[in-house]
Design a protein that fits this description.
188 residues; alpha+beta; two-stranded antiparallel sheet; rod-shaped
Amino acid sequence: MKLDQIQIQTQDAKVNLNIAKPVQHIEQPRAKQTISQPAATLQISQKDAKLLVDSSQAYRELGLISNGESIRNFAQKGQSAVMEGIARRASEGNSLMNIQPDGGRDTLSNIAKQHDTYEQQRLGIEWKPSVGSVKIKYEAGDLNIQFQTQKPKIDVQLGKVVHDYTPGKVSGTLVQRENVQTSVIKGE
């Protein structure tokens, strides 16, 4: 004996999908940057150094003097010599005036000896000009340096981000419906 059979036929549904992909656009313009730095300032001030050399004493010791100073020296020596001569003659006159009755031999011989003096010349080495006759004086100078830096000025302007986004879409249409058919086959 044969049994009845059930035959099942199925048909799947068919769907057609239309997919629009999403679109994303990101853009950022370059940043604008400005950098500037003012010049640094440099100030230099200086006081000059001085070297003072006074050699006038050395020149005088060597006999190298100015005309005015030479005239003053000769005038002073002349005046001094005249005063000494006047004093000597007055002293001699006083001595001659006071001659004693004994003949005054001692007085006349003393006056004669005074006129007969011979000044002995000095021998030896003499250093001209003398040590220390040149005066040297040094005044140090002064140097002052002032340096002042300036900070840089930096200005940055960022570009705004441009973001465009279009979302994707999915749309579907049913092309074929599902179908289930059953049939019975009788067994004979």
